[in-house]
Amino acid sequence: MTAVVDAQVTAPVIAPGASVLADARAQLRTATDVLGFDRSVFDMLATPRREVTVSIPLRRDDGTSEVLIGHRVQHNFSRGPAKGGLRYSPDVTLDEVRALAMWMTWKCALLDVPYGGAKGGVRIDPRDHSQAELERVTRRYTSEISPLIGPERDIPAPDIGTDERTMAWMMDTYSVQQGHTVLGVTTGKPISLGGSLGRATATSRGVAHVAFAALADRGIKVDGATAAVQGFGKVGRYAARFLAEAGMKVVSVSDQYGAIADERGLDVPALEAHVDATGSVVGFPGSDELDGAALLELEVDLLVPAAVEGVLNGGNAERVKAKVIVEGANGPTTPEADEVFRRNDILVAPDILANAGGVVVSYFEWVQSSQAFWWSADEVESRLAARMDIAWRDVNAAARRLDLPLRDAATVLAVERVAQAHLLRGLYP
Ligand code: NAD
Known about the structure:
Elements: E1 3-5, H1 19-35, H2 39-46, E2 50-59, E3 65-74, E4 82-89, H3 94-110, E5 118-123, H4 131-145, E6 154-158, H5 164-178, H6 202-217, E7 226-230, H7 236-245, E8 249-255, E9 258-261, H8 268-278, E10 288-290, H9 292-295, E11 302-305, E12 324-326, H10 335-343, E13 347-349, H11 351-354, H12 357-371, H13 377-402, H14 406-425
Parallel strand pairs: 4-5, 4-6, 7-8, 7-11, 11-12, 12-13
Antiparallel strand pairs: 1-2, 2-3, 3-5, 8-9, 9-10
Nicotinamide-adenine-dinucleotide is lined by residues 158-161, 203, 230-236, 254-256, 292, 306-308, 328-330, 355, 358.
């Protein structure tokens, strides 16, 4: 372990280009202003409780070695253990992980799951590494951060570039160090290893759930409505599937290699088979090729960004023609774009609400692991739907009461809950 920083003492400095963290802090500032909180509350909530940066020496399959950098940021513990995904991407930065950890705190509070927020990241392009190399990276990273994680401390889950395999390796490494199997240390595990039924599709189910409610809010019938989905990974793929199953025409999808379109609506099951066979949506028979950026500007009823941060920004917001945007990704919309969408009357269902299905079912997985008692898929799905419904209604009621867009209303609700927990617990010492 190279450094452990108690960020209560050493406040992180915003590095140049750290726009995602600046965006997350701007959203927090709006919420604390609406709530009338003073500067000290903002400072406390803008600052992660604990951060660790580790170096990960990796022996490559060809015998050479290299050193990777990994982070784990625990933003808040006031409502329970920290919780958040682990990202493998060449673009990972500490500031990005800080922003994502903060959003996790708001998401958990908004959905009323008893967690704080965390996030992890390793700067690596998983496409350039074999499974054996990824296993070694995961085990070394887990070993380095193991003093900080655990079912009562911090519970990682999959995010960009990681999956149930990664969570199995993490759980195994941690368990070997503890000397006994600790299923509750990660969520998003394989079903045969204490994973929950419904976890793999939970984020996308929640996205679809919120999308249907948002379309209804705008008086748009789901059956026959058009949708574009950016990103065809763990979130985008199943989101596209559930939208199509509900009768929507998914007219365009993309991944990091390119975008495709078919105005009659893509055959999503056939597209999934194509992606399984080729690794990309590009080249799907019968579809037209499209520029990835153009997907975001299509005239559709629903746009689901489900890839990376900052894709809807000051540069393209005025050209976005979707009626409703439901954020599958974390942080896809910058505050500048939010302002444009508000002016242009585009309804934005924010990430901390729209993609919260994943953490809700992660919570169910953690509960099942700790009780060693497993629920049926129907139980998981109906409990998820009930929680998403409540959160959607709470956020809409707050938006009306406070005359705010949904993002600000959602952040206000979440920040209020976290601040209240801080207040009730008091400041130690
Ligand atoms: P993933 O790695 O499974 O998939 C990411 C997808 O985005 C891939 O298809 C990739 O090709 C594509 N992509 C990357 N850059 C792109 C670009 N510039 N344009 C178009 N496509 C691009 O990751 P994921 O788990 O699906 O996560 C996607 C987003 O959803 C992230 O913001 C993540 O934080 C968020 N999220 C994920 C979960 C979850 O349960 N996995 C939960 C909540 C939020």
